[in-house]
Write a structure and sequence with these properties.
Among the domains are: 1-65; 184-261. 36% of the residues lie in helices and 20% in strands. It is built from 3 helices and 12 strands, in the order ααββββββββββαββ. It has a 5-stranded antiparallel sheet with strand order 4-3-2-1-5, with no helix packed on it. A 5-stranded antiparallel sheet has the order 9-8-7-6-10, with no helix packed on it. α1 (3-30) runs antiparallel to α2 (35-65). The chain starts with a helix and ends in a 5-residue tail after the last strand. One of its GO terms (molecular function) is RNA binding.
């Protein structure tokens, strides 16, 4: 198991232990002095402390593995995870400068707010699929379409809105739909390091204004992309649902109580492969004139 997996497991366990500790504390309020609850409370406190110490040790090990240029996922100021690149490492102060690779904005995070990079799965990168592909010029990821798969397992992509194509490995491709796409804030979030301060000089203010403008522009474009993708998925879902209903209607068996298709049709058993039973027309019997029984002449019926 890798250090990253171990830290993620410990984070989950620590959350569970803290939740259990809170529940026991609530029970102790209702039953103060209960010996069993008191013992359980002390044990859970020790478990939480041990888990925190172990997690700190694992984070220190992971910090030593983080290098400038590594891709990862990092928490943004909105508390959500985004694909990023490590730009600077300050292990002593637990500060890591990152660039978020979908939006292009930058930030500073702690080691506990970083996790392993996740590229697209093979099932998400088929010919014709829409993805986010790595653009070497600036190191960011942009919307693209997979045109073909090469013999060496690489992917030929065409960047949307640009007359540019590239051949990339799977590790350089992200799924088009990101984890937080449906939760984009209405307005761009300006990180603290880009906010203009009274102590900034003219040059610093102008530089921050340019970066804020670029950040807002990227946010507007991303919002449009997300809305377009939602509409497309909604329309495809509608078409798929219509096709399913049409197939169901075609394959539906005819009810034995359905109205006949013609004036000669009859309501009855259908689908057996046999014709309906036919009956001869019933007529009144006509006896001959000389018909008699024991000398008694029988009447004739018309």
């Amino acid at each position: 198991m890798s250090v990253d997996q171990t830290v993620d497991d410990l984070v989950q366990k620590l959350s569970e232990h803290r939740s259990q500790l809170e529940q026991v504390e609530q029970l102790l309020v209702a039953k103060p002095g209960d010996s069993m609850l008191t013992k359980l409370h002390e044990d859970l406190k020790k478990v939480v402390e041990l888990t925190e110490d172990l997690m700190k040790t694992q984070e220190e090990r992971r910090a030593k593995e983080v290098k400038v240029g590594d891709r990862c996922e990092a928490v943004w100021t909105d508390g959500k995870w985004y694909t990023a690149r490590v730009d600077s490492v300050d292990e002593a102060n637990n500060k890591y400068g990152v660039t978020y690779l979908v939006y292009g904005n930058t930030g500073e995070v702690r080691i506990e707010n970083m996790r392993p990079y996740k590229h697209a799965k093979k099932s998400q990168v088929r010919v014709g699929a829409e993805v986010r592909a790595f653009w070497q010029a600036d190191g960011l990821f942009y919307p693209a379409t997979v045109e073909s798969i090469t013999s060496n397992g690489h992917y030929r992509v065409n960047f949307k809105g640009y007359k540019y194509k590239a051949e990339l490995s799977l590790s350089e491709i992200l799924p088009i739909h990101q984890e937080n796409d449906d939760e984009l804030p209405e307005k761009a979030v300006i990180p603290d390091h880009l906010k203009i301060k009274p102590t900034d000089n003219v040059k610093q203010k102008e530089l921050k204004k340019k970066k804020i403008k670029a950040l807002k522009s990227r946010h507007r474009k991303r919002k449009i992309e997300v809305e377009t993708e939602k509409k497309k998925n909604s329309w495809q879902s509608f078409l798929t649902g219509g096709k399913k209903k049409l197939r169901a209607l075609k394959n539906r068996k005819k009810s034995i109580f359905a109205s006949p298709d013609s004036v000669d049709g009859r309501v009855g058993v259908v689908g057996s492969g046999k014709r309906m039973t036919t009956f001869d027309d019933r007529k009144r019997h006509s006896f001959q004139e000389d018909s008699s029984v024991a000398g008694v002449k029988l009447p004739q019926f018309n």
